[in-house]
Amino acid sequence: MKVVHLLSALFIMVFVTPSLANTNARETVIEMKVFIGAMFEIGENAGDKAGEFQFWYSRYFSDSEPIFVKGAANPVYCNKDGVCGSVLGMGKVGSSSSVQAIILSQQFDVSHTYFIISGVAGTPPSKGTIGDVSWGSWLIDYDLGHRWSPEEGQLGAPAFTPRTGYESIRRYQLNPSLLEWTLDLSREVSLKDSASAQRYRQRYPNKEARRDPKVNYGTHMTGDTFFHGPGLSNEAQYIAQLYEADDYVITEMEATAIAQVLDRTVGTKRLMSLRGAVNFDQGHPKESTLDHLDPAPGETAGGFEETVENIMLVGSKVTDHIVKNWQIWQHGIPEL
């Protein structure tokens, strides 16, 4: 009889206890309402020079404990309202691998999550200016295709053609209904500016480059290659037109890769791309491309801190609205 009782006790320890543990684990799963993904932070999350995450952290996560996720570049922070965020890492591989790790983690319920991919970017002076905040309408991968040196092709013709087989991953149109909401909620945000950025804009003859910053939208062009100069800027616009997307307004390094991860897991209907312009994608007419890439001291654009705060000011309008009206938004994007 003692042997029977001993076997029964072992059965409970081996088979029942893990079940109880799993039940407890399920009870602590965090429902993510909005996830904010930044790409880098300069130093700490608070108290020093702000990178892409610091203003988000100060607004939503200063009282949150870090949640470590295997495979993610940095901890995830979540507040009591279901807003979560993390620094994902720069570039396609670094950022998308972090997003995949977070999505697949059993610590979170992402079945209804809205994703805001947030960071700094460049903009062509014909379409934007320093301090602008842009919502993505299309995401295009700049790198997927064939390229050749211009002198090895037809004079004056584009030096790019799409590669067959990438049709489903080289561009993503973001949800037009969600884009309409983001523009409506953030169009009245008063954006910050700096004296240095105001002076710097005057080096460019373009009307768009010289104006005050505003909230806009358009195609966000993703490239691990930090392309620069009027020639490659024109090529980015050519690709946007080739793919029948909106005008190219933002150059960044992560969005299409993250979109591909979401497309394979939870879908892209709740994905938003939010970028702030901290540089032009080319020099002014009296400046070479190489000089613009490596400016002398005192020749930088300025306005970086103001722009990263602008990103948060714009994005928080959407975040707060979704959370406040979660009983509606959890079921999908309502009519505006």
Automatic annotation (TrEMBL):
Gene Ontology biological process terms from the UniProt entry: nucleoside metabolic process; transmembrane transport
Record's keyword terms, sorted: Signal
Signal peptide residues on this chain, from the entry's feature table: 1-21
Domain of life: Bacteria
InterPro entries hit by this protein: Nucleoside_phosphorylase_sf (IPR035994), Pur_nuclsid_perm (IPR009486)
GO molecular function, a single term: catalytic activity
PANTHER family found in the cross-reference section: PURINE NUCLEOSIDE PERMEASE C285.05-RELATED
Protein name: Purine nucleoside permease
